[in-house]
Model the fold of this input.
Amino acid sequence: MRLIPRFRFRSRTARHAGTVAALGALALSATACSTSPRSPAAAVPPNIVILLADDLGIGEVGAWGQQEITTPHIDRLAREGLRFMEFRSSAAVCGPARCSLMTGLHNGTCRLDDNDNDFLRTADVTLAERMHDAGYVTGLFGKWGLSWDSEPESWPNAQGFDEFFGYRDQVHAHNFYPEWLLDGADSVRTRNVVPKAGRMGAGRATTRLDYAPTLIRDRAFRFVRTNRDRPFFLYWATNLPHINNEGSPGQADGGYEIPSLGAYASKPWPEAKKSYAAQVSRLDADLGGLRSLLDSLGIAERTLIVFLSDNGATFLRRANDGGTDTVGRWFNGTMNYRGFKGDLYDGGLRVPGVIHWPGRTTAGSTSTIRVDFTDLHATLVEAAGRTPPRDISGRSFLPALTGTGTFALRPYQVWYSPDRAQSAVLEGAWKGVWHRDTMELFNLQADPGERTDVVAREPRIAARLDSLRRLEDRRRVHPTPR
Ligand SMILES: [Ca+2]
Done:
């Protein structure tokens, strides 16, 4: 491994070491002194894991009806936990969705409302920092996407993560066989060779020895093993099953790089489709590996796992798919909701979401509450034993996990997709979608597929949603040019 020294940040571990050690000791004694079998493991702050898939469509998971791609581990997590039917991302593309997850701020008020159009500042408070304050050790493994290389304050270790291994930049994360990855602030050389590598190491490797999802998984597992005796926050932001945009032209796999096609090798499908399915199943196997590890360490019972995707199934078309169809349609990744990644119709926003918290969530339960990444942020802060901040967009739905207690979600949700000049507001049954200033209105109760625009029929409702959009427009970090 060749280390390229870069700017190195002071670790935050030292500053918080006292808190972490003290909590760890408390947790241990609470467990040791407990004699009641009903004593909930949750009295101890749970370990918190977010496994965030990249561009995985809700319809591509067995738990939501997928039959051709096998996802036994996600399906099992759903069977043993709480499956969400109306979990929406906070944005229709990667960067801003992750920004909302980290800050709890919605798509208009977070720093990024589009990929790479801004970066996190020191003043921004991330979920990792909130977890740190609650006594957790924090690790990010995989794709960050919230920084600029020129701005060290935006790098993961400056935003609350004790440990970081993976990709800071999302273009870099397109490459599954990169020549280098980041370990904290340091570049670590792999054995891969990427001739004519583009910006941030993007491209296609000719020597393909180190599959980044494997390196990232192994580091995530090491983090879990190392921190088995104290509360940890693991943010595992895998780049599966994203496409290698820069490394896909003319390639049989269509850019869905995977070491083995596994059970799909014998399918009568084009290579790209097999590769995509194999990427999804590999992601699923990684979840299975994590659960086995938690079991073997004896900490599964005190670990809350969230499984999510960052946005809807992709709009990309691959010429080598045997036709010219959209990738997100290969396996009906949007479950027939309208649109794809990038769109503010539900095809771009609805994501597969599961929360599994032993002793809290009910096995096999399903929820239709309408939540997004900002609400998850608030919920996880509360699960960690802290009061959810009021100065964020999201509201905790922790009581929904157990089915007891009351909670209040936001009265409406708002999204922006600057790249498509779209915005959207969802309130009750009604969803407004704007293309610049042209509004469409849908009744999601009657028309979940957003096929029938009723804006002319419902002027009063249209005016109300438009006033909400204008209100939110005025609060935007990056105002819409008019
Ligand atoms: Ca994505």
